[in-house]
């Protein structure tokens, strides 16, 4: 096999010289020290790659998400390393270099374009946002040389940032006064949508104000997490009387 500086940078050999005597030949020894000279034949190497982190959606600008470190694979005479982000056209993240920008060390920080967990592309990908970071060697400190890339995966957690929305701003329904007990009010289907995910998408339905007490209550369980219609039903039909003296109670 070929000698490789990155595998073994030096060798020590012992050489023996022996004369031609038939009996008791004389011998001497010499030591040879061999130093392997490094040749640029290795691409950059990322430390602790691939990279991943979990952050809440709408994380503020300037938040440090993770650290990135890359070095020249040729350790004998390492070249400068430049880091760049790839496949991140929306600009949600940027690199903030630590010290010399050609040292291959940087922090990944958020920009003024926060990520939205409810973004269809992110939701389709299970809440993960992926892109890449590339490390490029510089020949003579300016000409791009060998390069390598590593994937970055950012997992977004949901934040309760969407209010529940009714399918209509107001509802109006007319019912007969003889509507039976436990009967849902006709033509009244209430649908509520909450764009958040998981526990943050659940909402409570309750009747806040009505003039005749103990007449109507939500039909289904109060805690809901999907867009199935909720109904209102009569719980005390004796209170439904059109002929009451007070017109406001009708």
UniProtKB/TrEMBL annotation:
Domain of life: Eukaryota
UniProt signal peptide: none
This protein's GO CC annotations: plasma membrane
One biological process term in Gene Ontology: homophilic cell adhesion via plasma membrane adhesion molecules
GO molecular function, one term: calcium ion binding
Keyword Cell cycle part of the UniProt annotation: no
Keyword Protein transport: no
Pfam families: Cadherin
TM spans (from-to): none
Cadherin domain ranges (all copies): 3-46, 47-166
Keywords annotated in UniProt: Calcium, Membrane, Transmembrane, Transmembrane helix
Protein name as annotated: Putative cad74a
Species name: Aedes albopictus
